[in-house]
Structures are given as structure tokens and as C-alpha cells.
Amino acid sequence: MKTRVMPLYKIYYSIIPSKDIYNHLEPDLANGPGHVDELNKRTGFFTKLEESILRDGMINPILVSLGWAPPRTYEKMPKNIQTSLDKTLICLTTGGSRLWIAQKYNMDVPCIISDYIGKYADQQELKEADIMKYFKQSGRVKVIYGQRGLLIKDLQPFHLR
Fold first, then answer.
1. What's the burial of 32, exposed, middle or buried (CB within 10 Å: 0-12/13-18/19+)?
2. Model confidence over 76-115: pLDDT tens digits?
3. By the 8 A CB rule, do 58 and 98 touch?
4. Strand pairing partners for 62?
């Protein structure tokens, strides 16, 4: 059995125009056409989220990757994204719904970047304690350095309080 080696990455923080991020988790893309309307009809989720972001801004950063995507994700991406992984920030794990709303309003968003190619190497690399400074969280959360880059687990959904 062939073992696939994940490339190394470093973690950085930056505020990025939402239009510069490919939203692989965009709700209608990830969950099928009509998902936004259906969920909103049942729970008002996207209306509440949109109102919160417009009122309070983006409370926590979204997680994005640069320079690499897992094979199953890569195969589902548009060809122009597949050929420009070194230029395209990709939302793969956390923040797709918030990014979707930020993109609707052309907002800049705070991002924690899993950089596989060293594009942000001129900035200070974040250590685990530094990462949590960017999240408005009481209590303990888990920071996981996973295959898709950085993951944050047990984070409370601040926008829907």
C-alpha cells in the first residue's frame, strides 16, 4: 500500500479580500443547489448569520490553505483552481458559510492560513498560543495540525447567539 506524504505547512494570520478566496465550502456548492434556501426556510440560519456579520463583522477568522489541497477535494475543484494552487487561497475546513456572506458583500476577512509554499514566510509564523489570540472563545478549544492544514475543534458558534 502506497503511503501519501502530506507536505509541510506553516501557519500565518492575514486579513484578505473575500473575493481572493476560493470557497470550497460555499453552502450551495458543498451541500447541493438550494441548500441555503431550504435551511434558511426551516431555521433562518443564513439570515441570522448575515445579520450578525453585517452588525458585528467577522468575529473569528476563517481557515484557509495555500499551495495544496487533499486529492478528493482537488478533483472537485474547477480546473483553473487546480492549476493555480500556488496562487489561490482555499477555504477547506472552517468558515465556508461566513465566507459566503463576506463574498456577497465583498468584505475583507481575517484568515488563519495554512501555507504550504512559503508565500507568507515574510510574516511571523503563528504558534498554537498565538493562534488562539485571534479567536473570541472562552473555555478550551483544540488546535489540530491536520492533513487539510490547521483545524480548530470545539469552537462556539459566536454569530448565532
1. exposed
2. 888 998 999 899 999 987 788 899 999 999 999 999 999 9
3. yes
4. 111
- DSSP string across 56-96: H---SPEEEEES---HHHHHHS-HHHHTTTTT-EEE-SS-H
Say what the pTM is.
0.82
C-alpha cell read off for 29: 456548492
Are 107 and 58 in contact by the 8 Å Cβ rule? The answer is: yes
Confidence of residue 159 (pLDDT cuts 50, 70, 90): low
Distance CA 31, CA 71 (A): 19
Of residues 37, 10, 11, the one with CA closest to residue 100 = 37
Q: Are 66 and 114 a contacting pair, CB within 8 Å? A: yes
